[in-house]
Design brief:
Largest sheet: 2 strands, antiparallel
Helix content: 25-40%
Mean pLDDT: 77
Number of helices: 3
Radius of gyration: 18 Å
Strand order of the largest sheet: 1-2
Distance between the termini: 49 Å
Order of helices and strands: EEHHH
Number of strands: 2
Length: 105
């Protein structure tokens, strides 16, 4: 298994992984979460105290295979992720670019 590309946000992680077909998605997610949790807790001991008896990562994950888009498109998408407040809008938040559209107010 090889991590081809990755990006860490404040509340989620994007990872493009190349793995042999005999590894299930669940095993890959479990491995990545387990190893990263272990290493983070080794490097940052305060995390061990904060998450003692609990889990560092959430239980869920999302997975999709490279199919309708190219691997290069996915790499670019991952690279372009950011935590800038302007990148996230609540569905009912007004946007100046929506003026004049049927969804704008």
């Amino acid at each position: 298994m090889v991590v081809v590309r990755g990006n860490v946000g404040s509340n989620h992680v994007h990872v493009l992984v190349s793995a042999p077909s005999h590894l299930s998605v669940a095993k890959i997610a479990k491995y990545l979460k387990g190893k990263s949790s272990f290493r983070l807790m080794q490097e940052f001991p305060a995390l061990k105290k904060r998450y003692w008896g609990s889990h560092l990562w959430g239980r869920g994950y999302f997975c999709s295979t490279v199919r309708a888009v190219t691997e290069e498109m996915i790499k670019k998408y991952i690279e372009d992720q950011s935590d800038k407040p302007t990148d996230f809008k609540v569905w009912d938040e007004q946007d100046s670019s929506s003026e004049g559209s049927p969804l704008g107010s």
